[in-house]
């Protein structure tokens, strides 16, 4: 229940209010609890509260008070027992207009028996008793939309999104008036200090806690509370009238009464908890009504309790009446600007605070520190308005401001200069615009590029020419291209003019200096900016091949050394240098496009080639790999051999039999006929595999499109495209592929056709003997059975229950342990460890999914077989 109430209050706390509330804070709490017990939804509760005029400030107060009540603090009638010795004061004012502290303490939450009683209590005399609650609210109302946005946690996300743009627009359209939200800040409540010394003019009243101390020859303490009729009663002394007396006057009266008995003692009266006062806040406030406040409360505290100033309320002319007479006028701007609390008087019982409508509002926009609306008094000047806005911003144009004013049926524009701002009077709804300065310069020249201190400079004095500007920038940088610079100048119509500058001639005196004008920009390029960046490149067997910046007089030996030197694999008998041919004056292309120079090296020095050879820009050096240098190439053999592991190829013509012999031959468990070879694909083989895969995909696509044309089914094309995309993403060239070998024949006939040549990365696996045969595919019961020498394929098919009805018997094939394939009927024999595979017929009438699946599988198998066949050629 507590969580539910808090959730409703938190939801409502996010809303801004416009209507005046017809319910007190206590009634809001009672209503939420009552409706929750009746099963009313949260949205309906919120709607009803809004219809009754409950706004954000009131809900915030209710939520804070409810949270305090849950923690045991004094709120909503919960009282705190004070010991006799506790003389500290608390703010005994309340947040609830229209009820006294005692009434709230006696309020019960379950006192409503009928709908009529409920409506009457909530009306509080301000809403007709026959008003009926509804379950809906105007969906175009900004208040309701704002509530819905803040309730995203309780409403569908799509509904909240639907209102989002409209809510932002409503928020932008609301006027932001300086100072209006000061009484809506929960951190600035203006609560009085309850434990300060009592003011000299404080008058004791009913409800004050009075402490009387007797000390000296006698010791005695009395604690009592001033009764509603203004008297206190002390044991043995009877009633004493103290209401309306100041503390000093009450002290004198108590000494007079008690002095006869305690003539040799001192007597002192003090006030602990003070009484409360009833204050009426009316007019343009968020929640007008009668408030019970502390006796120390001020005007600001009462305005905070009333929820702050409303949309139409004045901040500059708040009036306080006591006994029918005006006792104070409050201008909140005095407090905001200077911290003055003039007019913020301490309130008394039955005081009336009247907040009338504002007199004038003026808007300031543009280059001021606080652009917003301001409430103005009649007769205040434009200068005062700008001072309210915090003054001009740093980049404001202060010589003149623009004022738009409503004059009868139309608007007028006034341009007020800086000398008339103090005399120009502001009117209601004036709109003041402060422009920024023009983004131009009056005395600026700029230098960019190859100088030591590029940037803007003040033109005039010694900086009045190109030479003076360069000297002010600490001269030209070393990389400056001084024969030609560019001066950009703006003509009278702000179009650009370009002037060529011979900086070198000006600095040496050969050319006349050029005078500068405002906003001239001088650009001095670097040498690299006026010509192509010059580089040289080295390829091949050096530690750091790449592109290097060209340097004058660099030799071939220097460049090789700069690239880290030669690798061990580099050839020293041939190093080539290619040089581009450049002829800027040619009229036709030449058949010769480059020249090549060859050199021999010894100990890093050129011993054969063009003498005194020096590299030129864009030369490319090629250090070849020596044909007599080969890095070690390793193969591995594993499984049932005596010495399994890696072996280095000692010859380019090493074969299967050589490695098998080097490994000590097979063990007694080795099955030589089942040995297989796995090989890494070379770059060219990878390209062929990718090409074969693409061909397979293209053929599959063509077949499916043909099928779509025949069946007039366009969805097949879409399905093929989606399937093609998925298979392309999944395809990767394998790290290795199987090579069918016959190791037994290679051992029997070393160097023969079966004795395959090995290469880097080959992996030979010699398995154990496997005395089984596996039957798979389109058979009744795929099975693995023991190998029986001499038995045919038909025997093993029978062991799997025979062919299935969709078996394609003529395409049955055998996959042997060594990676070889054989089609049944072509002298294929069953061997230990082999697998008999029976393909499935492709039906003429198949579903789309089956067609795609079988087509993809068949094409994939065909592509793999074709690729392996190509690799074995």
CATH superfamily of the largest domain, called what?
Outer membrane lipoprotein wza domain like
Strand order of the largest sheet: 22-21-26-23-24-25
Mean model confidence by pLDDT: 80
Architecture of the largest domain, according to CATH?
Answer: Roll
- What is the C-alpha radius of gyration, as a whole number of Å? 51 Å
**CATH domain class of the largest domain:** Alpha Beta
- How many β-strands, per DSSP? 36
**How many angstroms separate the termini?**
84 Å
The CATH topology of the largest domain turns out to be Outer membrane lipoprotein wza fold like
Structural class of the helix and strand makeup?
alpha+beta
Distinct helical segment count: 22
Poorly predicted parts: 14-20, 72-85, 95-139, 146-163, 848-873
Instruction: Characterize the biggest β-sheet.
Output: 6 strands, mixed
How much helix is in the residues? 25-40%
SS strand fraction: 15-25%
- Which overall shape is indicated by the principal axes computed on the Cα atoms? extended
Region (Disordered): 73-103
Signal peptide: 1-19
Protein name: Polysialic acid transport protein kpsD
Domain Polysaccharide export protein N-terminal: 199-264
Description:
- The chain is α+β, with helices and mostly antiparallel strands.
- The chain folds into seven domains: 2-137, no CATH class; 209-271, wza like fold (2-Layer Sandwich); 276-355, Roll (Outer membrane lipoprotein wza fold like); 360-434, Outer membrane lipoprotein wza domain like (Outer membrane lipoprotein wza fold like, Roll); 444-530, Outer membrane lipoprotein wza fold like, CATH 3.10.560.10; 535-625, Outer membrane lipoprotein wza fold like (Roll), CATH 3.10.560; 687-871, Outer membrane lipoprotein wza fold like, CATH 3.10.560.
- The chain is 27% helix and 22% strand.
- It contains 22 helices and 36 strands.
- The strands form eight sheets. It has a six-stranded mixed beta sheet with strand order 22-21-26-23-24-25. It has a five-stranded mixed beta sheet with strand order 7-6-10-8-9, with helices on one face.
- Helix 1 runs antiparallel to helix 4, helix 2 packs across helix 4 and helix 18 runs antiparallel to helix 19 (714-730).
- It is extended, with a radius of gyration of 51 Å.
- Residues 14-20, 72-85, 95-139, 146-163 and 848-873 have low confidence and may be disordered.
